[in-house]
Amino acid sequence: MNDSPDFRVTFRTAVVPAAGLGTRFLPATKTVPKELLPVLDTPGIELVAGEAAQSGAQRLLIVTAPGKDRVVAHFAENLSLEEHLEAKGKTELLEKVRRAPNLLRVDSVVQDRPLGLGHAVSCAEAALGADEDALAVLLPDDIVKPHGILKAMARVRAERGGSVLCAIDVPKSQVSSYGILEVEEAPKSASLDVLRVLGVVEKPALSEAPSTLAAAGRYLLDRKIFHALRRIKPGVGGELQLTDAIALLIDEGHPVHVVVHRGTRHDLGNPGGYLRAAVDAALNSEEYGDGLGKWLRERLDLDSSDAN
Ligand code: G1P
């Protein structure tokens, strides 16, 4: 979508909050950080780093927690492994091993207490350059495909200023799991589905939900977000919520738009969503697609004949 001459990257740093305990993935996450669980063969954090790099980010800033150093270590070179693979002539594996360290610069900051997504984002402030007036935030639980949504969001910020979110339309039964947006029509933007955001409410009951459009883990935020984050009180779950800071900015007149994403979105944050992402990736792969597809069809046929 976006290598047109008018495209401007409006951010340098992509912040990835990765300090969570991964409780929905216990017992696996007792010792392995959730962000390192592989989708097929690639850790979720590398998928998100790849998306950030493709979108023009120059730096990934991982917000990590004490004891989760291995998430950042995934982006360091492993020279002895590389030498071993090189000596054995395993060039494909070598490329895979070298990919993460070569994607983009990776830095980290530590969120020492689990005070919520808003607090995690606020930990990034001190690590941004004084000239950075916007930042991207990518939640590593959310896989949004095809890539390109952040470039679209950057285009909207370049045209309209303010902050830009990404939304997906969710079933009514799921609104209480998301930040839900109140929106109104906005002037059309080329081929993009762009709406103006009038409000956002974190995890509402269905009766309180202003729509079924949910914030989907990709944010392009004006630096003003940090000032708002300093002024919010703990919200849903007793945590400092990013949505509450965005709502505060909107109330103060800051323009916020949303690009509606109509492609694939997977939630790696729970075993069911994670499995779908893995199956999707496997079905798309040359190596595993055919075999897995055949096996799945046989397996499902067996199930339906058992049911008859
Ligand atoms: C977070 C945000 C929520 C957003 C969701 C997207 O919730 O707080 O607004 O809609 O990510 O995945 P979490 O999934 O961390 O509970």
Distance between the termini: 48 Å
Low-confidence stretches: 1-6
SSE string, helices as H and strands as E: EEEHEHHHEHEEHEEEEHHEEHH
> What is the beta-strand fraction?
15-25%
Percent helix: 25-40%
Molecules bound to protein: 1-O-phosphono-alpha-D-glucopyranose
Strand order of the largest sheet: 5-4-1-6-11-8-12-10-9
Report the total helices: 10
- Tell me the total number of β-strands: 13
- Strand-pairing-aware structural class: alpha/beta
Write a structural description.
- This protein has helices at 44-54, 69-73, 79-87, 91-103, 117-122, 149-160, 224-229, 242-251, 271-284, 289-307; strands at residues 13-17, 38-39, 42-43, 59-64, 105-110, 134-138, 142-145, 163-169, 179-185, 194-202, 213-222, 256-260, 264-267.
- Residues 1-6 have low confidence and may be disordered.
- By secondary structure, it is α/β, with parallel strands linked by helices.
- It contains ten helices and 13 strands.
- The protein is 34% helix and 23% strand.
- The protein is globular.
- Helix 9 (271-284) crosses helix 10 (289-307).
- It binds 1-O-phosphono-alpha-D-glucopyranose.
- 1-O-phosphono-alpha-D-glucopyranose is lined by residues 117, 139, 141-142, 178-179, 202, 214-217, 241-243, 269.
- 1-O-phosphono-alpha-D-glucopyranose (G1P) binds next to strand 11 and helix 8.
